[in-house]
């Protein structure tokens, strides 16, 4: 009998054959979720100029020293400075410029008095706000009474106080989330060089499969796997292409995969990999001449172009296949057909492969230790690493969180999978677990 592989051996074999995708330059929003290839250097200081952090009046500090509501400092308003203003007036002694948040601090001014610390030019008590310029253009002229002093640079955001020119804004390897996209935009980057999202072709196999939304005939079931795998690929950051279920016919499957290779950085199939007489994936992909290219060079490359089918010491997910196919040596992972097996296999093998293609680390999901709860204990097949579905609660006051098994071990239990938020990772040598035992948990967040 051929070798039984451990989960780690199979994963390591896959990862050994996969390299990060070549970098490309993408528009900022298209790069969301992608990994930066190079450090991004700040080209010019941010903010690019000293500016006001308040709507108020730009003043000289000496002019408002000792000011109070009873004895206000009275200053002449020389004009408005709105955000985006250029051609700034100089603020001389006894003068103030009305200034808006984000507007450049004018020459001569040392600080900004918020409008609430003034009469807003009304001659009355403290102002709540400035009237709109369109409704009260006279606010840009006349006099303002200032009720409180300010210190030099108060309410001024200094040039470069956010980031300085020449410093590193983001390090290579950073995954671009909303805040990182925002920073790149703020420093003026319209495009960025990243590892692209991998394109994943997902196809399920089985003559019994019917697309959701269509009625079932005798012996038929709805195709769940191509949906769960497509959703999982998208959640992992890839661009999935779901191909409708292929019937159990080796030639059609080969033809479908061959057609799809053009748009695939990775192919995932489900079903047809065990030991039955209609296990089409195995039949179609075990042939040595699979996916020869059309020219000589491709043909030479394609020698040995075969998917290796393996048995893993794992439950669910025992039958697995992996290979590199076609002229571009595209990785293909063939997952077992039982829906829970397909999903667990995705989490353990496909997701790390996708993260490797994206240049993201760590490639494996984090694990935590948790205490097993539930009325009875668990049994696990010795000699197999078992991944039960679990409901994990993170620690509160206690040092460890808790986890409860959801549903049984059978790999057709997709309803229980949908109630789970974690996998319970039970080692090969463990046959029995009691409530209160510590276990390893893989949160699926
Ligand atoms: N004699 C043996 N039989 C089986 C063994 C074995 O070692 N010896 N292994 C079992 C294990 S474990 C698994 S896992 C399955 C894997 O089988 P396949 O990968 O060949 O999958 P299928 O036979 O095509 O399907 C299995 C099961 O899952 C259902 N299925 C398949 N695709 C979908 C889909 N897209 N959506 C929903 N459900 C799907 C299918 O109808 C079958 O019920 O083999 C065991 N047998
Ligand atoms: O190993 Mo299978 O994946 O139990 O259902």
From TrEMBL:
Region (Disordered): 374-396
Pathway: Cofactor biosynthesis; molybdopterin biosynthesis
Enzyme class, UniProt record, top EC level: transferase
SUPFAM superfamilies reported in the protein's UniProt record: MoeA C-terminal domain-like, MoeA N-terminal region -like, Molybdenum cofactor biosynthesis proteins
Keywords: Magnesium, Metal-binding, Molybdenum, Molybdenum cofactor biosynthesis, Transferase
Cofactor annotation: Mg(2+)
InterPro entries in UniProt: MoaB/Mog-like_dom_sf, MoaB/Mog_dom, MoeA-like, MoeA_C_domain_IV, MoeA_C_domain_IV_sf, MoeA_linker/N, MoeA_linker/N_sf
Catalyzed reactions per annotation: adenylyl-molybdopterin + molybdate = Mo-molybdopterin + AMP + H(+)
Domain MoaB/Mog residues, every copy: 201-356
Superkingdom of the source species: Bacteria
Enzyme Commission (EC) number: 2.10.1.1
Signal peptide: none
Family recorded in the similarity comment: Belongs to the MoeA family.
Function: Catalyzes the insertion of molybdate into adenylated molybdopterin with the concomitant release of AMP.
Record's protein name: Molybdopterin molybdenumtransferase
Biological source species: Streptomyces spirodelae
């Amino acid at each position: 009998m051929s070798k039984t592989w451990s989960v780690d051996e199979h994963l390591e074999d896959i990862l050994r054959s996969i390299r990060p995708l070549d970098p490309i330059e993408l528009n900022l929003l298209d790069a969301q979720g992608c990994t930066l290839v190079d450090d991004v250097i700040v080209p010019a200081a941010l903010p690019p100029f000293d500016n006001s952090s308040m709507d108020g009046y730009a003043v000289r500090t000496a002019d408002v020293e000792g000011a109070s509501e009873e004895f206000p400092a009275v200053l002449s308003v020389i004009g408005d400075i709105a955000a985006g203003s250029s051609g700034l007036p100089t603020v001389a002694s006894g003068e103030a410029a009305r200034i808006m948040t984000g507007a450049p601090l004018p020459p001569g001014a040392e600080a900004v008095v918020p409008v609430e610390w003034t009469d807003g030019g009304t001659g009355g008590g403290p102002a709540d706000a400035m009237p709109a310029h369109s409704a009260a253009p006279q606010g840009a002229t006349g006099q303002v009474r200032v009720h409180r002093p300010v210190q030099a640079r108060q309410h001024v955001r200094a040039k470069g106080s956010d980031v300085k020119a020449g410093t590193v804004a983001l390090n290579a390897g950073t995954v671009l989330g909303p805040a990182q996209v925002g920073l790149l935009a703020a420093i003026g980057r319209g495009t960025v060089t990243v590892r692209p999202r991998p394109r994943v072709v997902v196809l399920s196999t089985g003559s019994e499969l019917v697309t959701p939304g269509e009625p079932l005939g005798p012996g038929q079931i709805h195709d769940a796997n191509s949906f769960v795998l497509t959703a999982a690929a998208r959640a992992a950051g890839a661009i999935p292409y779901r191909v409708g279920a292929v019937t159990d016919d080796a030639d059609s499957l080969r033809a479908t995969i061959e057609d799809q290779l053009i748009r695939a950085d990775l192919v995932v199939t489900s079903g047809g990999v065990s030991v039955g007489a209609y296990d089409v994936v195995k039949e179609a992909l075990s042939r040595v001449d699979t996916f020869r290219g059309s020219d000589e060079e491709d043909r030479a490359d394609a020698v040995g172009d075969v998917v290796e089918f393996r048995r893993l010491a794992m439950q669910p997910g025992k039958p697995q296949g992996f290979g590199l196919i076609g002229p571009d040596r595209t990785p293909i992972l063939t997952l077992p057909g039982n829906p829970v097996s397909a999903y667990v296999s995705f989490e353990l093998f496909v997701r790390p492969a996708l993260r490797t293609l994206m240049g993201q680390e760590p490639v494996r999901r984090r694990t935590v230790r948790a205490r097993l709860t539930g009325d009875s204990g668990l049994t696990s097949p010795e000699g197999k690493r078992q991944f039960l579905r679990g409901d994990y609660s993170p620690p509160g006051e206690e040092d460890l969180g808790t986890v409860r098994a959801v549903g049984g071990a059978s790999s057709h239990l997709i309803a229980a999978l949908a109630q789970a938020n974690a996998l319970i990772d039970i080692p090969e040598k463990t046959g029995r677990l009691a409530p209160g035992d510590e276990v390893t948990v893989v949160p699926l967040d």
